[in-house]
Design a protein that fits this description.
CATH superfamily of the largest domain: HprK N-terminal domain-like
CATH class of the largest domain: Alpha Beta
Structural class: alpha+beta
Shape: flat
Number of strands: 18
Number of helices: 14
Radius of gyration: 27 Å
Number of domains: 4
CATH architecture of the largest domain: 3-Layer(aba) Sandwich
Distance between the termini: 42 Å
CATH topology of the largest domain: Udp-n-acetylmuramoylalanyl-d-glutamate--2,6- Diaminopimelate Ligase, Chain: A, domain 1
Largest sheet: 6 strands, antiparallel
Strand content: 25-35%
Strand order of the largest sheet: 13-14-16-17-18-15
Length: about 425
Amino acid sequence: MATKHQQILSYIESLPLGAQISVRKIARVLGVSEGTAYRAIKEAEVEGLVSTVDRIGTVRIERKQKAQIERLTFAEVARIVEGTVLGGRDGLHKTLGRFVIGAMETEYISRYLNPGSLMIVGNREHVQRMSLKSGAAVLITGGFTASSTVERLANDYQLPLISCSYDTFTTAALINRALYDRMIKKDILYVEDVMPTQNLVTLHPTDSVRDYYHLVEQTGHTRVPVVDEDGRLVGILSPRDVAEADPSGAIATFMTRQPVTVTPKTTIASASHRMAFEGIEMMPVVRNRDLIGVLTRQDVIRALQIMSRQPQVGETVEDVVVRDFQQIWSGENQVTLRGQVTPQMTTSGGTLATGALTTIIQEAARVCLRRVRHVDMVVENMTLYMLKPASVDTVIDAHAQVLDYGRRYAKVEVVVRDKSDTFAKALLTAQWIER
């Protein structure tokens, strides 16, 4: 039987796009507490089913697939610019194709208007009307409002009419930054992107240990999830659990309860870290306690290989910090990263910030391990000693050396210095996943 949480999510998913959702309404319709309704709505927001807009509320939107993740809904645009929706609320769930700045002569504007676009304009009412009639939503900058005629057009065409207090340049920059962040997010691999969706093998608590052995022989999988009659994960069974078990005994007696799990929205980087840290080969993938798949170490390795070959469209903070550093092979088990301390890496006092320093150190250790063993590492522990501040424009070397390594771990020392001074030293303990 589905839980109340699952019933609420199913109800939200059944609502038409653009429908408004409230905690009180769901609590009243489904007969649940407001606390339960609130938690389910937040889960629906994480799942991409709804979006919350200030002064409007929560709106049902279309769940975005990976290929469309970089597209913003008008509801999200309103939240990004801290805007007020003046009309066209029924169109908040629609997605933004592109935005146009209405700073040109009227006769030229029509060339750039098409359905799904967003016109960013001030108090030029004739441009607002032209945009809505062409199928484009309107974002009014400068804190201006709209006439009743424009509001009526927005409602008739179901196109959002939004007003914000920012100037046109700032508004466009905010939207562009959000789109840029989405492009980065699109490049990130999640468990749902690599998780196999077929041949899911499970056991039930009432099955016997003998059934487990037969399943291992058939599939070759030694770690098997255990689910109840509703498909909810209740445990996991491995050879260690049944090493001395009676073959006729029920597996509920021997299974490991509360196993380590991941969700479909867990990043591959996070999943690989947990696998290395826990020393496990497979993790169940759950959504609202329901088992929907499993993630194996082979899946993670394949995803890491894809990530290493993937062209990055947008730059993360880590990319900005290390993009101009050069790799220098400085000896056996040793690598040096050489680069300049740029203003973006510094504190307000003009010295290398701790966050940027840590990023450089971890990158040096990662490059070193790739050279030595061709592996990806997950940092388990790092001890950092700050000796002297490194000033802006200083050319620094991050010299990494593998001190010791075994089958699953490595110890790496990193020294950050220039020609005359040593700025920091660090000792990293890392586990790795071989490709």
